[in-house]
Amino acid sequence: MSDTDDPREAPRKRSSGLRLLPWLVSALCFAFLSTRIDAAARAEGSRALPYLVSVFARVEWGQWLALMAPYSLFYFLVESTVIWRVINWFHTPIRLVDILPVRASTYILSILNEQVGKGAMALYLHRREGVPGWQVGSSMLFLMLCEFFYLLSWALVGYALAGDSVPPEFALLPWIAAVALPALAVFGYAVRSDRFADVQLLHSFRLAGPSHYLLVILLRSPAMIAAAFVYAGAAHLFNLPASAGQMLALLPLIFFGAATPGPLRSVAVLMWAVFVFPDRPAEATAFGLVMHNFFIFFNATIGVVFLRRVNRELFGQGPRSGPRREPKANEVQ
């Protein structure tokens, strides 16, 4: 058998292809954006790069930073609080101050892939608190599912407030909700059956009741409300007209794009330039680039401060001693 026939090569090639896919998607996104920016620059009698640089030069960066730095910190605290509550509900008592360092540190990994950051958090909690890894993984999946319904809920609110000023595709949102909510109810009922009693990856879903889903959405909501005003204010600094009501409708879908694996949040940047501000591609591209990437790099900088502590607890002597509380089904504290 030749080397090319080695059956071990096929999985490695598939794995390499999957790793390259986010980079390919990002390259296609930015290639498309460059054509849009070039066309806008030519219409103004300029070239693409000087035209884009002029967009950045017109921004009042002091005002922009005064908006973004407090918002990034606020979002970090809100998200950490949600994770803290979920771990206390489904696994073991833990202090919020012990969640903050690991959540900040996982923003470093989230620069390329948000889901890798969640995986690192699961590993940290397994090592530090002795919680079975698959059970912590189930809580990360629970948070991802809650995030979908959180974004969907706020997209519906935003559509109700600004339905005439957002793309017509938003009319699909009520239909998506009409399918998603019954599907969640069926899923929640099914995972409680004895058939899934030993599936550790469904641990948190079996313990979760409707109140848990609702509370996660409510705990996250202050971040979305703040984002609507912050993004609207920042958009004006980039000469992009937008109201907080419009942002409330648009941001949930944009945030879906930002969660797509890939460098520089390319899918979210593309969405700003194609679906939200198609007549101002240079301004929209600059806006999307700095908004999404400042947020993640700012919080990653906080993570660097805690990285030494997190590494010590992650690769140190293993879990702390002491009994863990066994949560009860539908328990909310």
The whole-angstrom Rg is 22 Å
Helical fraction equals over 70%
Uncertain runs are none
Number of domains: 1
**% residues in beta strands:** under 5%
Overall pLDDT confidence: 82
CA(first)-CA(last) distance? 62 Å
- Specify the number of helices: 12
SSE string, helices as H and strands as E: HHHHHHHHHHHH
The total count of strands amounts to 0
- The global form is globular
Outline the biggest β-sheet: none
Assign the structural class, choosing from mainly alpha, mainly beta, alpha/beta, alpha+beta, or little secondary structure: mainly alpha
Q: How would the blueprint of this fold be written?
A:
Elements: H1 9-43, H2 48-57, H3 61-90, H4 96-110, H5 114-129, H6 133-162, H7 173-190, H8 203-207, H9 210-237, H10 244-258, H11 266-276, H12 281-314
Helix pairs in contact: 1-2, 1-11, 3-4, 3-9, 3-12, 4-5, 4-12, 5-6, 6-7, 6-9, 6-10, 9-10, 10-11, 11-12
Brief overview:
The protein has about 325 residues and is an all-alpha fold. About 75% of the residues lie in helices and about 0% in strands.
